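WARN no homologs supplied; continuing
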Amino acid sequence: MTQPPKEVLDQFPPLPGHEATWRAIYLEPVMCSGERITVAVIAFDLDGCEAVKTLSPERLNALFGSQANGMDAMIDIAVESVLRHGQAGTLEDFSSPFSGVYVGQSRNALGDSR
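OK structure emitted
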């Protein structure tokens, strides 16, 4: 495979220098349905890890109606459990506090910060 000319490569901005990995946290809202919703993302770098929920209160209400507050509480429990486990350094042997919570594959990322 040939390399593009340097003039072409110089037109692209430099890649960010911060390296991390991330994993999606999925919730199966209807047990045994196989349907999964990404409810959070956990990111790891050399300084530790951090989890961020992905569903706004408005989205939860749109998806779950009167059950939105209960689902939000379940998501909080799941995310806290994943985060506590991640702070120990790995999620390889993560076991959810209740069924229907899954952790996705680890993916590499570059950015300006975690």
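The helical segments are 6-9, 57-64, 68-87.
OK
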